[in-house]
Design goal:
Layout (H helix, E strand, L loop, with lengths): L1 H4 L12 H8 L3 H13 L3 E4 L3 E4 L17 H6 L23 E2 L12 H13 L2 H5 L8 H15 L8 E4 L3 H11 L5 E5 L4 H9 L3 E5 L1 E2 L2 E2 L1 H8 L4 E6 L13 H14 L2 E5 L24 E6 L11 E4 L2 H14 L5 H12 L2 H28 L3 E2 L8 E6 L5 H10 L2 E2 L1 E2 L12 E5 L5 H14 L5
Helix pairs in contact: 2-3, 5-13, 7-13, 8-9, 8-12, 14-16, 15-16
Family: In the C-terminal section; belongs to the class-I pyridoxal-phosphate-dependent aminotransferase family.
Protein name: PLP-dependent aminotransferase family protein
Organism: Corallococcus terminator
Amino acid sequence: MSEIHRGRFRPGDALPGYRTLAQGLGVSRNTVMAAYRELADEGWLVAAPGEGSTVAPTPPRRLPGASETPPGPAAELTGADMGFDLRRPPDPAVPDAARNLLRVATGNPDPRLLPGAALARAYRRALTVNPRGTLAVDDPQGHPTLREALARTLRAARGVAAAPERLVVTRGGQLPLALVAHALLGPGDAVAVEALGARDAWEACARAGARCLPVPVDAQGLDVDTLERLLSTERLRAVLTTPVRQYPSVVALSPERRARLLALAARHRFAVLESEHDAEFQFEGALPPPLAAEDRAGVVVLVGSLSKIFSPGLRLGFVHAPAPLVAQLRSARDALDRHGDPALERAIAELIEDGEIERHLNRMHPIYRHRRDVLANALSEHLGAALTFDPPTGGLALWARTREGLDVDAWARRGLERGVAFQAGRQFAFDGGAVPGLRIGFSNYGDAELVEVARRMVEALPEGQ
């Protein structure tokens, strides 16, 4: 009973057979059978003839003589049986998602469009053609073949003077920023961040002990005038920014502000932590180059992800940085994660080398552009009085402004109840205040589903608004 109560045996788990348990305990088989019958009578287990015994679906909530407490993992959530204190309270539990929930809170690639056959072939070759050359790689910077392929891609497609030795390949898009924060920042260091941005990025800096100082964002991106005034009172260690496609508002940092930001960084000797996401998808016009392509003073640290190409489940990211910082990133990576997945890294390198990733992106561009248009048209038709937006020229999500007086947070909550999940602007606000806007992804659903997103959002509008 105590093992069921504390969660070692879960509802539905098979219990040892009579003979096995009797031999292990050194008692007779009849003794075990009698004990199992008593436990079944008390509701702890269920016995089926010929199929053995399993833990009951809803075992009793307390042991004989004990106070009533939830069994198993439910008790663990209360911390009642934890023998040490946490530095801070745990994050609140995420509620179970509604059935048939349409998730458009982020712009993620559609996993149904994954070139699974090509990826499987590349992965198979990575494991079989030269397994020693793949799996014996123990390099905190990542597989050399992938770093070489990434460097060529950054030079050709993004104009960055990239070199393999200045790249660190990581798992996913969050780890590279965490490594940079770990290597570059320390307690009390000041980091300027976009006042509308990604909380996980701010958290990475804060966990390194840094102080995050918000700087406003407008239609031209990061407000460099405010940043310059901040420099008169603060010794900045870094500026964290998304200049090519600001997250979440998708605006681009203006050319004049780009030049001023780089000049300020060189003059005041702070690092520009440039985060790029979904830069692979540009539908109209020319995509601005990253700041790293215009960096002549060695101040830019470029953080990117490959997860937006195929699927967030394929966790690959990278950092391109000056050599002295790369040495510290190697050390931090070695201590925290040792190295990544060499087989996956080698497989992705092959897909880059043989042009499969470029072909995949060429196939995805018209699909995602069409889905953007479907969602934009549906929102304009059904929610034109509530939302205004400019269809983004690229990326996998749009930012919409809401009419004055509309309670966006209530709208998002009601949306969950009606089966659609989008992000209210407050989720991106550094100060946690209300923001008259919302972010909606369009890449991971087809036409009918995107029209249904708009329909459910209409149903979820707060009454009277």
